[in-house]
Structure formats: C-alpha cells, structure tokens
Fold this sequence. Notes:
The structure holds two protein chains of two kinds.
Chain A: H1 2-17, H2 19-41, E1 57-62, H3 71-77, E2 81-85, H4 89-97, E3 103-109, E4 112-116, H5 126-146, H6 150-157, H7 172-206, H8 209-216, H9 219-252, H10 261-264, H11 268-295, H12 302-323, H13 330-335, H14 339-352, H15 357-385, H16 395-404
Parallel strand pairs in A: 1-2, 1-3
Antiparallel strand pairs in A: 3-4
Helix pairs in contact in A: 1-9, 2-9, 7-9, 7-11, 7-12, 7-14, 9-11, 9-15, 11-12, 11-14, 11-15, 12-14, 14-15, 15-16
Chain B: E1 2-12, E2 15-26, E3 29-35, H1 41-48, E4 56-61, E5 64-65, E6 73-76, H2 88-98, H3 103-116, H4 132-144, E7 150-154, H5 162-177, E8 181-185, H6 189-195, E9 196-203, E10 206-212, H7 213-221, E11 224-229, H8 234-245, E12 249-255, E13 258-263, H9 269-279, E14 283-288, H10 293-301
Parallel strand pairs in B: 3-8, 3-9, 6-7, 7-8
Antiparallel strand pairs in B: 1-2, 1-4, 4-5, 9-10, 11-13, 11-14, 12-13
Helix pairs in contact in B: 2-3
Amino acid sequence: MKKFLTVLKFEIGNYFKNKSFLLTTVGLTLLMVGVVIVPTFFMGGSKKADAGEDTKNTLAFFDEKGYLGNPKEFEQLLPQYDWLNCSEERELKEAVKSEKAEAGFIVQGETKYTYVVENRSMMDNIQESFESGMLKSYRMKTLTEQGIDAGIVESLYEKPLQSDTMILGKDSAKNYTYTYVLVFVMYFFVLLYGQMIATSITSEKSNRAIEILVTSANSNSLIFGKVVAGAVCSLFQGGLILGAGVASYRMVRSAWNNRLDFLFDIPLNAWLAFILFGILGYLLYAFLFGMLGALVSKTEDISKSATPVTIIYIVAFFVAIFGMNTPDSVLMKAASFIPFTASNSMFIRVAMGSVTAAEVVISVLILAASCGIVGFLAAKIFRFGTLMYGNPIKFSVALKKIREK
Amino acid sequence: MRLEVKDIHKSFGGKEVLHGISFSVESGSALGLLGRNGAGKTTTIRILMDVFKADKGEVLLDGKKFRPGEYRIGYLPEERGLYPKKKVGEQIAYLAQLRGMGTKESKESMRRWLARLEVSEYENRLLETLSKGNQQKVQLAQTLVCDPQIIILDEPFSGLDPVNSQVLEDVIQEEIQKGKLVIFSSHQMGYVEEFCKDIIIINKGTTVLSGDLKNIKREFGNNRLILSVNDMEHEELHRNADQKWGSLVSVYGHNKEQLILEMKPDVKKEMILSALAKSGLDVERFGDYQPSLNDIFVQVAED
C-alpha cells in the first residue's frame, strides 16, 4: 500500500510539474470565467425582453398580375417582415443580390410562386412563412367570392389554444445542451488521459526506467498508481474548469437574465451521475490504455496499437450522441448496461430520461466489476509486457502467456 | 548474510534458458557473475530480484526463502534506466522512497550520495543534459541511495573515464568493507579480479566454472608454464616443443606469442629448464603460468 501511495504521489506530482498541464488548467479556467462574466459588463441595464425588438428582415415580392390582392393587405398578413413591393422582376433579383431583401417571391398565380434567394441556408423558414401568408390570402379571397365571411373562418383556424405542460420526468429539451457538453467533456478527458497514461508507460520502457521501477515496487502499485493519479488530476482539472464556470454563472445569473441556464444550470443529480459514471468509464478505458502502453516498446507505436480501443470509445461516444435524442429508447437502455458504453449512456439517462435507482445501481455494479477485471488483466499484462522489447506484442499472445504462467 | 542460489531453471516460451544455476555469496565479499552476452546473467539477476519466477530451484538467504521485498537492494541494470526529462535529485529521491525510505531521509541520502560520487552540482539538472559518464554516476547514486544491504552491479564501469572509475572503485571497496553483499557482473576482467573473491561463469545457461577466484587461478595455472623465445613465433615454437620435448610437455595453448606448456606427469620444472638451456634457444620468458581471468574466461566460454 505504501508503495502504491509513493507512486501515486510521484505521478500526481508529474502532472502538476508539467507546464502544459498547468497552463491549460489555469488558462481554461480563466477563459471559462471570462466568457461568463465579461459579457455582463456590456449588458448592464437592459432588462426588457428582446423579443419583438429584433430588427426585422426584409422580403421582396413581385406580384405583376396582383394575385395576392391588395399588396398592403398582404403585407399586414405577415407583419413580422418588412416588405418591399417590386415593380419588376429585375428589381426583385437585384434587391436580393444586394441584400436589401433577405429573399424574394415572384408571384405567378394564386397558388404559384418562385422563391428567389441568394444562398439557401439549412434552416430557412422564410418560405414557410410566405406560404402561410399566400395561402391565407387565397383563402380569404376565395371564401369572400363564395359569400362566406372569411374573417369568421380565419378566426376558427387561428384560435389560440391554452396549454400547460406537466413534466412528470425530465425536460429533455431543457437538459439537452448541458448533457451534450458534458458527454463531450467526458469523451475528451478519457481520450486525453488515456493517451497520457499509455505514453507514460511506454516511455518508461523505452528509457529503461522500468528496469529500476520493476525491481523497486510491484507492478500493481506501478500501474494503479498511474491510473489513479490520472483520475485524480482529471477530476481536479475538470472540476476546476467546470466548477469555475458554474460558480461564476451563479454570481452573474441575473445579469444574463437566466438565458444561459440551459448551459450552466445543472442539477445535483446530473453532477453526481457525471462524476460517478465519468470516473468508472475513465478507469475502464485508462486500464485498457495502460495495457496497450505495456505491450508496446516505442511511443511511436502507441497510436497504432491504440486504434482498437480508440475505435470502441468513439463508437460508444456516437451511440451516446444519437441516443441523446431518445434517452428512453431500447438502444439506450441496453447501452447503459454494457460496460463500454455504460458511462455515457447511463449518464444521459439520468440527466435526460427516466431511470430507476435500481437500474443505476446495477449499472454501477457491472461497470465497477468490469473495471476490476480489466484492472486485474492490465496489471498482469503490465508486469509481463514491460520487460519485453521489440515489436508491439499482440494482445492475444499476451493473454496466452499470462495463462501459461 | 549468505545468499544461496540453488539449481535455478527457467524457460521462456518453451525454450529453457537457465539449466540449473547455482552459486552463493556472503556479505563482506563480492561475487563476480560472468558470462558471454546472452548467457543468462540478466535473467538470473531478475529471478534473484523476483521479477521473474524460476521454474525450478530456489533462492535462500541464511537458509530461508529469500524475499527481495524485505531487504533493501540496490540494482544497477546494464541497460541504464532513469527518466531523461526529470531532475536528477528528484528521481533519485523518488526511487529511494519506492525502496522504503522516508521523504526526508531519501532527500538527505540523495544529497550524500551525489556528493560522494562528485555530482552534486547536477542535482537540479535534467538527466539528459548530463554527459554519459555523469549519467552513469547518477545511476550509481540511484543504486546506492537506499543504503542497500545487497548490491547488484551490472557493468558499472562502462562509460567511466579513469578518474571516475577510481571513484567508483573506492566506493565499491568501501561497501564491501562495510559488510555488504555485492554481486558484480562485468566483462572488464581486471575489475572483477580486483574486487571479487568468488566468481561464477555462466555459458548458455549452465555454470561452467565457479568458486574462489584465487583457487581457480591456481588450478588453471597448476602444472603449466609459459615460454616465449625471441625471434620465434609461437607456431614454430609449438612445432619445436612437440618434436624436441614431447616427452616432457604437451602444448596446452598459447597466449599471444607465449606458448603455454603443460607438464607431463612426474615431470619437474628443472627438467624443462635444463632442456631449454641445452636447446640453445634465446629464451625471452619462462615461468609459471598465471592465467588472468580473461584467459580463463576465454578458455571455458569458447564455443
């Protein structure tokens, strides 16, 4: 135990003596705080809601034959835009080209038009708005011709409904953003620290420090010391940066008008799930990376050998990202019990879906057991692999040799 | 303390590399562990230190099973190993702590040993910035920093200039006088002869020679004489010897231009001396054969 603690102290010290570790931690923390607090200096005073005070977009239309009826009446149908009534098709195209108008509509019939736009963006609802206006205009005209009071009919269509939302479980929409961000953070940390652990082990092989280390302490202390040191430092680094962000947001929340709540207002249970599953997921992958480091002799060979594990993790990551849209789907439910994907999936289910305490406990137990098994394997492979030099050792070969012992 | 290695067998991947190695060392003396490259020296050392487990055989200390973890062992591997990008003092202290020293104690000892080996000025330098010889000395400091009871040195003199070699010599002698148990592996036979009371020569995983060095030398020199003649090469001398003195001696070998003659049974040195005098040859050197360890090694470890 004492040796493990000695190794742990040394490895943690290594991280903190590493200039880039310190710089990134401090830098990101300050950046986080800055991004949250500094804009508030420029926002002071205005407490009015912004809706409605945004500048309106301008749309152009060219209705040669007057299909839309009275242009002014049409413009009032869609008051959320400023309208530019063009007398020529060329005028309309120029207006769109010169950005005087966001887009233009050439009306060619009561129910036919051409949409003119410079670049069609992916989220374009201008066309939709125009269509609703055009359709409304057509309805009113036709109904009036039929002798039906268009106004009454319109009001029937446009009757506003009253509604209240009662969320029994989670508001997925609200939690989406921070869950997304935190899953990314988890992904990033696991890969970063995993690589660092593998590199640390391999370089001890290539500079032969391992010869001394392996005769001074047992290999369990060595590998567990490294992995746990990584866990401690990643917790510290992540905790500092995220904590700084959340704490500073708490301070200036009112200045932001609660607008960044979707990002920073993270409930306690989500935090706990993030930390718990984050650590377990990290341990699982860290041990895998440690194993890889032990099977390789040169740091250049690490990325090649690490490919299988990296791919597994990326797949797990994508499963999580896609699953985020349907946190209670069968896919997510299954994924939250498979050790490789559990850390991401279970966290998402806790944050965005509904999950029972029993399920959480079972998943934690499965994950913890997997960590134990992988850790045990990693220690054995570490012991065996660290004194073998040359080409990267195949995992299957390593397993066979351990069983021989 | 008496360390005994008994009949160690070890295989790797189905191939046996050690076929029954046995030797013993006592504290206050040094054992020379010798062998050609690939003979099995490092494997033996690793088994000693419990890095590998032997397939058969045992290692005893004072009659009981040897548990390396219970003793402070200083190990200088042939493949030097330390962190190139860390400060010298820091890593030595860390390695001392790993071997059981307290934090404060490790720092004090580290400074003491850096001073003893005359490399104190590099305490806060990164290891890779030092010259090879100084790195070697740092490695030595690492070996001795935990004040080990058992010291295993694998090629400690490689890379050291004559002055530094002297420093190391003195240090090793000191440790031996202090009663430490020293195992010394080297190809530099001169040093081995100087320090070691006992030797063991391993070749292809078997012991080919072991025992007290003085006795071994005497045995190898027993009944043997060297002879060299001016202006005559040893091949010619060899022919001469066979033809003229075949009843008295047989040619055992040669050492450069010196012929090594083995006296036949009941033959005395005086008889050969008179035969030489009668031959009229211009004798350059004649005397008892005192083989150097190098000579012995080459003889027993040749393919």
